[in-house]
Amino acid sequence: xxxxxxxxxxxxxxxxxxxxxxxxxxxxxxxxxxxxxxxxxxxxxxxxxxxxxxxxxxxxxxxxxxxxxxxxxxxxxxxxxxxxxxxxxxxxxxxxxxxxxxxxxxxxxxxxxxxxxxxxxxxxxxxxxxxxxxxxxxxxxxxxxxxxxxxxxxxxxxxxxxxxxxxxxxxxxxxxxxxxxxxxxxxxxxxxxxxxxxxxxxxxxxxxxxxxxxxxxxxxxxxxxxxxxxxxxxxxxxxxxxxxxxxxxxxxxxxxxxxxxxxxxxxxxxxxxxxxxxxxxxxxxxxxxxxxxxxxxxxxxxxxxxxxxxxxxxxxxxxxxx
Amino acid sequence: xxxxxxxxxxxxxxxxxxxxxxxxxxxxxxxxxxxxxxxxxxxxxxxxxxxxxxxxxxxxxxxxxxxxxxxxxxxxxxxxxxxxxxxxxxxxxxxxxxxxxxxxxxxxxxxxxxxxxxxxxxxxxxxxxxxxxxxxxxxxxxxxxxxxxxxxxxxxxxxxxxxxxxxxxxxxxxxxxxxxxxxxxxxxxxxxxxxxxxxxxxxxxxxxxxxxxxxxxxxxxxxxxxxxxxxxxxxxxxxxxxxxxxxxxxxxxxxxxxxxxxxxxxxxxxxxxxxxxxxxxxxxxxxxxxxxxxxxxxxxxxxxxxxxxxxxxxxxxxxxxxxxxxxxxxxxxxxxxxxxxxxxxxxxxxxxxxx
Lengths: 322, 355
Prior knowledge:
The complex is a heterodimer of chains A (322) and B (355).
Chain A: H1 2-23, H2 28-54, E1 57-58, E2 68-69, H3 73-79, H4 93-125, H5 131-143, H6 146-157, H7 162-169, H8 181-209, H9 213-221, H10 226-254, H11 258-264, H12 275-285, H13 291-321
Antiparallel strand pairs in A: 1-2
Helix pairs in contact in A: 3-13, 4-8, 4-10, 5-8, 6-11, 8-10, 8-11, 10-13, 12-13
Chain B: H1 2-9, H2 24-50, H3 55-58, E1 68-70, E2 72-73, E3 82-87, E4 96-103, E5 106-111, E6 114-122, E7 126-128, E8 130-132, H4 137-145, H5 148-179, H6 185-197, H7 204-213, H8 220-224, H9 231-241, H10 246-254, H11 259-270, H12 272-288, H13 291-296, H14 305-315, H15 320-352
Antiparallel strand pairs in B: 1-8, 2-3, 3-4, 3-7, 4-5, 5-6
Keywords (chain A): Cell membrane, Membrane, Transmembrane, Transmembrane helix, Transport
Transmembrane segments (chain A): 28-54, 103-124, 136-156, 184-208, 229-251, 290-315
Domain ABC transmembrane type-1 (chain A): 99-312
C-alpha cells in the first residue's frame, strides 16, 4: 500500500514540477486548491444554484430543458393550507404531516437527548472507577450505521421479540410496537436518542473537564452546598458548551432520515415520515418523480438549517472566546 | 430545606463524609452506569447471540439468551439425521428416543438401540433434547445464497477509495490555504465555510442531476466523487498545518525541493495525527453512508452492505437468521476499528464536531 501510494505521488510530481516552473511558486497555491475547488463547485455550489431553478419548474423530466416553468407554483402547492394546524386542509397534506412530525420529533429528541447527555456527562465526570471504559460504553452506538441501529431495535421490538417477552414475563399483554402510531413514534425518538447521545455526552464531558478545578476548591472553602455549586458554577460555566450541543443536535435532528426510514419506513401510515423522507419520496422513490416539489421542499428546509447554522457559528465563537 | 438538599446531594467524595459507607448517590451513580451498560451494549449482544440461532430457535417464544439447537443422531436404516427427544409420560418415561416423523399430534419414534421398531407416542409426551450450538450456517449461507461478497466488495471499495481521494484532495487544499499567501485566499475560505451550511441532504435533486449528467448513476464512482471535498476535512487539516512552522518549508526550498515534494515529504508526514483523525472519520462516514447511495445505486449488484441490509429486511422479514448474520458482519469492521482506535476516535470526533 505504502509503496503504491509512494509511486503515485512520484508520478504526480512530474506535472507539478512543470507547473511550478511555468507559474512560479505563488500561483501554485491555486494548483493545490484546484481539485478541491472543482469538486466543491460541481457537487456543492452548482447544486445549490440548480436547486433554486428546479424549485420553479414542474413535470417529471430530469433535464432542465425538458421541464416546464411554473414559477412559484411548487411553493404554492406546499404552502397553501386552509388551516395551517390541520394537515388535511393543505394542498400537499403529506408535506405538512412531515413538518409536524419533524417538529415534534426534534423537540422531543433534542430535549431528551441533551438532558440525558448532560446527566451522563455529569456522572462520568464524577469520581468513578473505570471512567474510560464507561465513556466508551455510552459512545459505542454512535459508531453504528443507521441501518444496523434500526435492525437491532426492530429485532428487539418485533412481535415475538425481547421486549414483548419481557412484557409477557411481567404479566402484561404483548404489544405490536411498530404497528401502533404512538409507540412507533416513541421508539423512533428512543432509538435516535440511543444512537446519538454518546456523541453529545462526549462534547459535554470535554466542557466539564475544561472548568478549572480551583473554582470548585474556592466554592468548597466557602462551604457551598453541592446543589448550589452545580447551579452557580457548573451550569453557567458549561452554558457555552450546552448551546453548541443544543444547536448541533438541532441541526442533525431536523435532518433525521436514515435510521427512522430503515426502522419504521415512515409508518405506520405517515406517523414517522419526516422532511428528508418527504423529499426523498417525492423526488426519487415515488412515481411520477416530482423533482420540482422536492426541490422546493428542500429549499424550505435549507432556510431553517441556514438559520440554525448561523446560530451555531455564533455559539461556537462565543464558546471559543468564553 | 437547604439542609435537606445538602443532605440529599452530598456524595462520598465530599470532605466531611470521606471514608463513610456507600451513599445513596453512589448507588445512583453506579446504578445508572450499570443501566447504561445494559442499555448500550445489551441490544448489540442480543443481536450477536441471535445471529447464532437456528431458524427453529429464532421462532421460539419467549426467546432464550443462549443459542440452543436440538441434538440429532444418525441411526442405521435411516438416511437423514433424526432429532432426539426425551419421553415425559407413559411407559417409556425418561427414555431418549429419535423421531422418525410426525403426523399431526402423533410422533413416530424409535429407540436408539432398536432403530427399526417404530413406536407411536403423542407429541405432548415428548421434550426435545437440546445442546448449546452456534448456527454458523447463518453466516456461511450468506455467501452461498446471496451476492454477499459483491456487497462487501462494493462497501470496501467505496470506503477505501473515497477515503484516499478525500485525504489527498483535502490535504492539498489545506496546504495551499495554510502555507501560501495569495489573493483570494479569504474568498476561498469563505466559500468553504459556505458549503458547511448546505448539507448534502438538501441538494439531493440537483446533485442527482449533476451526477447523472456525468454518467455516474449506478456506478460506485457516483458515490465516491461527490463526497470527496469535505469542508470539515479542509478545516481540520488547515488548523493543524497552521501549527507547522514555515521555517521548515524555507529550509526545504533552500535545498531546492519542489513544492510538491515539500507537500508530500514534509507537510503530510508532519500532519499525520490530523490525517489519522480525518481518515477514521472518513471511514466511518463512508461505511455507514445510506441516503446518497440509496439514490445513486439502484441495481442490486452495486448495492453497498447498508443498502443490501435495508432492502433485504423488507423481502426477508421471515428470514431473520440471514438478516441478523449480515447485520453482525456489517457492524464488525466498525467495531474492530473502535476497539483499536477508541481513544483517537473520541477526541477526533469531539474536536471536529462530527459531520
